[in-house]
Structures are given as structure tokens and as C-alpha cells.
Structure prediction request, 241 residues.
Amino acid sequence: MIRWIIWDIANTILHYHYELVFQRLARLTGKEIPRIRHLIGGDYFTPGSLIYDADAGRIGRKKFIRLLRKRLGIDSRIPNKRLAWCFMDCFELPNATRTLLHFLADHYRMGIISNMNPVQWPHIRETFPTLHEDSGVFAFHVLSCRDKLVKPDLRIYALAFGKACAQSEGALLPGECVFIDDREENVKAAEEFGMRAILADESGPWGIARNLADLGVLLPPADYYPPPVVPRVPSPIRGMA
Prediction:
């Protein structure tokens, strides 16, 4: 029986239009996108990449922007807030996903494990109230930039499982948790830890829902509507003047 549903964020809950980041940086710098990819660090999922090091919590927001400026040769007259903006406003929460999340939160406990850039998280949590810590939808957020562990490291699943155990009534087994992610290596790591796992693909929330149903998870009826969105007051990008 599934008791906990644990989610990734990018391309699992939120559609991440990653190409927009590079298009914006290309317009800002006048450099070709392949050159920008190379300067930022090539493979974003291995150490040494600027994106990876930020996700891993090795560098914070200020240093990330400073190194980005240095590597891309960006003029000092361009403010830090504009550089940070290149990594924002490139996410979308489908209504079907929001509906699924709010329904599931009424019947199951849920958490998040995400490889997260420290520049993007403040924007995400304010833009999408469903993901905010105060929403009541998720019982915990394990974020790589904050917890300094990156999927598919098994320790990040152990950390999340420990948080789930601490908030469960009675003993909890890894097999009573299902983890949802869009990267196969992260799904395999969750299975290695002992969790059930679902690979999110281009079928989006409908594919996730079908896979959850196969595990015996309840799905929202046709007449279910999530609570209305309550806009939050946007927070300034602190330290990004």
C-alpha cells in the first residue's frame, strides 16, 4: 500500500522550458548557444558544471551569478537581477498536475526531492503557491542546493525517507513510498533504495496518474476541483542588486 508520494519538480510537477534560459543568455551576451553551454560547463549533471555545482550547494546564489558573469564575459553594467531573471519565468504548472497534487494531498502524505538551483527556488516557491512550504500540500522539501546532496546519490533518498518516517504514524517501509522523476537514473536509484518509482515522460500528468493508479493510488473524480490559487506577494531577489 502506498502511503507517501514523493515528487521531483522540474519536468515532473513543473514543465521546465530550459531552452529559454539559453536563448536569454544568448541575447544578453551575443554568443551562440553551443558556446554558452560549453562555457557554463558542458554536462550539467556532473561535477565541474556551473549548473551542477549550484544545484549541489557548492556555490550560493551570489557566487553563481558572479561566476556566470565571469565565464560568459557579461558587462558589469548589466545588473545581477537581469542575469538571475534568465533562469526564471521558464516554468509552467499544468492545471491537470495542480488538480492531481491537491487531490492526492487530501489522501496521502507527499514530499519533494529536487536537484534545485538556488537562484530558481525562491522564484518557484513564490510563483507557484502549491509548491510553497506553507501550502500544506507537501510535508517536506529536500532540495539539493540546501541539503548538499544531488540525485541519484542514495543519501538524498535516505534523507527524504527519514523525514517521511518522522512524520508517519507507525513504522514506514521504503516500499510504501513512490518516487516520481523524469530522469531514469534517479528513478533507478529510488528503486535501489527500496521505493516504488515512476518515470515521468512526455505523457505528462496523465501518464503519472495512470502509473499511480496501477499502484492502487486513488485518483481525483471528474467533478473534483482544486482550491483557488491565492496569489502570494512576490519576494525581491535578495542579494541580486
